[in-house]
Amino acid sequence: MNLTNNLIIAMPGLADPMFEKSVSFICRHTEQGAMGLTINHPTNITFSELLAQLDIPLTIDSLASTPVYLGGPVETGHGFILHSNDTGQDTWSQTLRINKHISLSSSKDILTAIASGKGPANFLITLGYAGWGKGQIEKEMEQNSWLNVVADNDIIFNTPTDQRWESAAKKLGIDINLISGDVGHA
């Protein structure tokens, strides 16, 4: 099973505080492992604060309070921008095209474009990413740590942060709040 372009949804019993009630978008999944971004854990950093640290002027005031998310525990000092492919620009300096609608970039040029109103219409900025080694995510799936569903751009970019976990599970027809975190045998 290739989980690229899927949302993985933490089961209620997942005890890791980094991933509790998390939804992660899997950007790449190969035999060597997987890389994703948690899309529902905002940090205390806003887009305007991030830009100030990078000396990038913000000319679109409505974006100032846009949250920056904790994408995962790996490389938390590095930024990643998950974004729509709607600018007519095929790629930025460092871009991985995930599907025809979504790409992942990690370069200053896209932040500059977004700050000046010339970037993609939809974007989500994270610090860090979630990584899984060879066979790790498959093992966690087998242990029922995660549910998965094909990614939904509306959940990623438009659903309020605090509703993403439940909304992703609803795509599977599940009310995740009704699932017990206890494991047992019948």
Question: What attributes characterize this protein structure?
Answer:
5 helices; single chain; alpha+beta; VC0467-like; 186 residues; 18% helix; ten-stranded mixed beta sheet
Structural notes for this entry:
By secondary structure, the chain is of the alpha+beta class. It has a single domain (6-178), classed as 3-Layer(aba) Sandwich (VC0467-like), CATH 3.40.1740.10. It is built from 5 helices and 10 strands. It has helices spanning 47-53, 108-115, 136-142, 153-157, 164-170, and strands at 6-10, 23-30, 33-38, 42-46, 67-70, 74-84, 95-97, 102-105, 123-132, 146-150. Strands 1, 2, 3, 4, 5, 6, 7, 8, 9 and 10 form a 10-stranded mixed beta sheet that branches. A hairpin with a 2-residue loop joins β2 and β3. The longest helix has 8 residues, at 108-115. The chain is globular and about 45 Å long. The mean pLDDT is 92.
Largest sheet: 10 strands, mixed
In the CATH scheme, the class would be: Alpha Beta
The CATH topology: VC0467-like
Structure annotation, total helices: 5
Structural class: alpha+beta
Count of distinct strands: 10
Instruction: Work out the helicity level.
Output: 10-25%
* Radius of gyration based on Cα positions: 17 Å
- Through-space gap between termini: 28 Å
Q: What would you give as the CATH superfamily? A: VC0467-like
Number of domains: 1
Shape: globular
Give me a quick take on this structure.
The chain is an alpha+beta fold.
Secondary structure layout plus pairing:
Blueprint: E1 6-10, E2 23-30, E3 33-38, E4 42-46, H1 47-53, E5 67-70, E6 74-84, E7 95-97, E8 102-105, H2 108-115, E9 123-132, H3 136-142, E10 146-150, H4 153-157, H5 164-170
Parallel strand pairs: 5-9
Antiparallel strand pairs: 1-2, 1-10, 2-3, 3-9, 4-5, 6-8, 6-9, 7-8
